[in-house]
Specification:
Elements: E1 8-9, E2 18-19, E3 23-24, E4 31-32, E5 55-56, E6 63-64, H1 74-83, E7 119-120, E8 127-128, H2 141-164, H3 185-198, E9 210-215, E10 226-231
Antiparallel strand pairs: 1-2, 3-4, 5-6, 7-8, 9-10
Length: 241
């Protein structure tokens, strides 16, 4: 827990609640919570020794001290107190709060917030303000110890790996794969146009009805291979010489 020392417990045994803004009774000097802060609420042992003129406001629950000049009755004092929004005739020590030492462990720092109190570092067990509460903000000794432990664990792990595994350098032969040539689309179109320009057939057949084929002649004929076309509607081809 980052704020273990903030607040105090109510002095009443049947309450003992933790209050982060505890209040000291101005009469018995004991610490109480907000609910039991007034003498009448915690049966203050010193209540009988004070002036019986003290009044407790039912609205703000503060103690009211009637003025000596002009002398007012308790009823008039309470009335004027309520008309001033509970600001007049307050008993001067009725809201005394517990004071904290504002000095931070960091040299030259006095910024501990009295409303929160000091923050104790879990590493070095020293008290700091909110600004210097983190270990890195006050160069905590625990950081150096952590770095040392990390370095020792890293060295031990490296030694264990070196003993367990033997590192060998093996060069694996990589089989090279020759790329297969791929005919481009433009090359196929050129071959088709060349075949059509050299094809033989009946010139009376309309161009739209021509079906072009490539004829591979047998070796014993000693004839060259050639391209021809015929009518794909009638499926008729004239003799080619």
């Amino acid at each position: 827990m980052e704020l273990p020392n903030v607040g105090q417990h109510c002095n009443l045994s049947h309450c003992n609640s933790l209050d982060f803004l505890p209040i000291v009774c101005p009469l018995c000097k004991h610490v109480f919570c907000e609910k039991h802060r007034l003498p009448l609420n915690h049966d203050c042992s010193q209540w009988n020794l004070v002036d019986k003129q003290l009044i407790q406001c039912h609205k703000c629950l503060n103690l009211i001290n009637p003025p000596s000049l002009p002398k007012l009755s308790p009823e008039q004092t309470l009335k004027e107190h309520l008309e001033s929004d509970c600001k007049t005739y307050l008993y001067q020590e009725s809201n005394s709060k517990v004071e904290f030492d504002r000095k931070c462990t960091v040299q030259g720092c006095y910024n501990i917030d009295p409303r929160i109190g000091p923050v104790r570092c879990d590493g070095c067990r020293q008290d700091f303000c909110l600004r210097h509460r983190n270990p890195s903000a006050h160069s905590c000794e625990s950081l150096l110890a952590d770095e040392k432990r990390k370095a020792e664990r890293k060295l031990a792990a490296q030694e264990k790996v070196a003993k367990t595994f033997k590192v060998t350098n093996k060069i694996e032969k990589v089989q090279t794969i020759k790329p297969v040539p791929v005919k481009s689309k433009n090359g196929s179109m050129v071959e088709l146009m060349k075949m059509k320009s050299q094809a033989k057939g009946d010139l009376s057949v309309p161009v739209a009805s021509r079906l072009y084929i490539y004829v591979q002649c047998p070796k014993e004929s000693f004839a060259d291979s050639l391209s021809v076309f015929f009518d794909k509607v009638t499926k008729r081809c004239n003799d080619i010489t």
